[in-house]
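fyi for ur records
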Amino acid sequence: MRKIYILFILSVCAVCLNAQDASHAWNKIYPEIEKNISAPVFRDAEYRITDFNAIPNNPDQLNHMAINTAINTCSEEGGGKVVIPAGTWHTGGIVLKSNVNLHLENGAILLFTTDPQFFPSVLTRWEGLDCYNTQPLIYAYGETNVAITGKGVIDGGASHENWWPKCGAAKFGWEEGMISQRTGRPKLLRWSEDNVPIEQRVLTIEDGMRPQLINLYKCENVLVEEVTLLRSPFWVLHPLMCENVIIRGVTFENDGPNGDGCDPESCKNVLIEDCYFDTGDDCIAIKSGRNNDGRRWNMPSENIIVRNCMMKNGHGGVVIGSEISGGYKNLFVENCKMDSPLLDRVIRIKTNTCRGGIVENIYVRNIEVGECKEAVLKINLVYESKEDCNRAYPPTVRNVYLENITSGKSKYGVLITALEDEANVYNINVSNCVFDGVSETAYPLRVEGQTKNINFTNLRINGHDSMLVIK
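which gave:
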């Protein structure tokens, strides 16, 4: 195993070339992506759920039939706004349709039942694997022009008493004999490895596979704006194979297991801005399918902008992986603030030799970090090292640029775990950054495995200049 702790080698030409690459991306590619992202437009027509016999503030009254009838009527009549007024609206599963803006007025709470009988089986993905599973609490498939807006709250109702123990971990309430993903997850992983047809991958309630709060699958022209998303059973917001997506001003609060905030998967042209994240897992995690399923679709995520967001707790602020077999390219992250002793990393890339795929063109600038637990940048090519899978697919991570990042406290500056036999991590650049409070002062860079072309320029570690180039 090769460990590189600190190495000072100057290479002016390489530094200049890398600076030009990043400048071109910000000045040329970034504006082109912005041009391809726009909010959907809806008719002025308004459909209030009270006109469809919805009743608020009654736990014995589930309103999903009234809400879905309003949504279907709105869509069939050409679209518009379906309004959830102030009050607590108990409900089962909701299905969005084309040309509908589901709008929650200030004071409105959509509170979902935790009884899985009210969520029928639908086609979805679970951790990057195609399957039929319990319907996400809000779901859409193959729709165009859909939105969820307003200053109301969407509350999944998940807790240690219902959905969360199904993760199979004792700290979330699981006990021996309980239904949990300990049954369903190995089954689904094996189906994928054996290339079982998707129509045969039908999971039941007894498999214990928790649903997402919101899953928008194969949709185009999507807006999620201003709402507060709470207590999801699993991932919170999961756009899957969508194009032209805006997520703006959304509050994500979810400290449950696998409680990712926003997981765009195999999506193209996505803007995430002005959002707040406090999560039990990654704040933003970009995906593109897992192992055979990701390779079969071969749909990378690409062209994603993250800006002006606040990240508090989470395993990572902005993350790529681990279900990234379809690859990823063109991520732009800027003007974000991250700060918590329970935030593990700022930028995180995680994958392994089951996944394969190329992750490239990652541009990050102007990030203010109060503190994080482990590293400002972590790249890990041996994530989930005990996974039972075909390990014939070495991944590649290249063209990563961090500039103007300030961090007040972390264990490491940059932490890379690469492959032992191939230099599949290369062209990694950290420039004009200040990392203070680095506790492992011998390791401004810690590398295990083979890498090449790693460059530190104008980087200050605990008040000391650090210049590093690994050719």
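The helical segments are 12-35, 64-76, 181-193, 291-297. thats all i got for now
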